[in-house]
Amino acid sequence: MSDQIVDPARIKAMTRPHGTPFNITKIGHVVLNCRDLEASTRFYTEVLGFRVSDVYTPDIAPGGMVFLRFNHDHHGVALVGSLPEESRAIELNHMAFEVATLDEVFRAREHLKKHEVPIDFEGRRRAGAQIAVEFRDPDGHRLEIFWGLDQLGSSGFGRPPEEWIWAHTLEEAVANPVKGQDTTLPDRSVLKTWSPEEERKQREYSITTQTAKLGRHD
């Protein structure tokens, strides 16, 4: 047991700083690593009543990945079948926080850099198509700030895989939007200019961090 002293008054005094350039509106989704993807999917669908939005095959994520929804968001929970053995409390792949505007994702990127927080990923996801920045807390937990998650209508059908466009910078996501996604920025001063070499290195870094997160190390 830790012998660290906890000061309730000191902790309660911690608050949102004035001028924080973005406002998180909700916890967007939780991604869990699991041992048996089908058994876990069966639990979330047949026991909890979730619906399946999309599935990644093992060539994308070892063990496969299932995106599950309980409202119009593309996913509220996702399962990655990469847990090699009985749980060691490492099931939380990442936690995501939604912001209301695309501009705020850009502002969040600069805010994180100002606070010297390394960014593991920035750009657009594939399934769900949200534009995001991903980073880590002091304990290494992966966190995501995102905007623009696909909304599924009454048909229950999501965007087909051929419409997935993986982007490895925020600027690339804006310049190359997916069908139906309005990436117009009222303030274009938030855009960064990348050199071809910077873009190449960023893409390589992005792919490395994301494949490692999903359990791939090739």
Total number of beta strands: 8
Poorly predicted ranges (pLDDT <50, ≥5 residues)?
none
In CATH, what is the homologous superfamily? 2,3-Dihydroxybiphenyl 1,2-Dioxygenase, domain 1
Q: Note the run of SSEs as H and E.
A: HEHEEEEHEEEHH
Distance between the termini: 39 Å
Characteristic key phrases:
24% helix; alpha+beta; eight-stranded mixed β-sheet; 8 strands; globular; 2,3-Dihydroxybiphenyl 1,2-Dioxygenase, domain 1; 5 helices; 218 residues
Q: Could you give a quick summary of the protein structure above?
A:
With 218 residues, this protein is α+β, with helices and mostly antiparallel strands. It has 5 helices and 8 strands.
How does this structure look, described?
With 218 residues, this protein is an alpha+beta fold. The chain has a single domain, classed as 2,3-Dihydroxybiphenyl 1,2-Dioxygenase, domain 1 (Roll), CATH 3.10.180.10. It contains 5 helices and 8 strands.
Question: What's the arrangement of secondary structure elements?
Answer:
Blueprint: H1 8-12, E1 24-33, H2 37-47, E2 51-56, E3 65-69, E4 77-80, E5 92-99, H3 102-114, E6 119-124, E7 131-136, E8 142-147, H4 170-175, H5 196-213
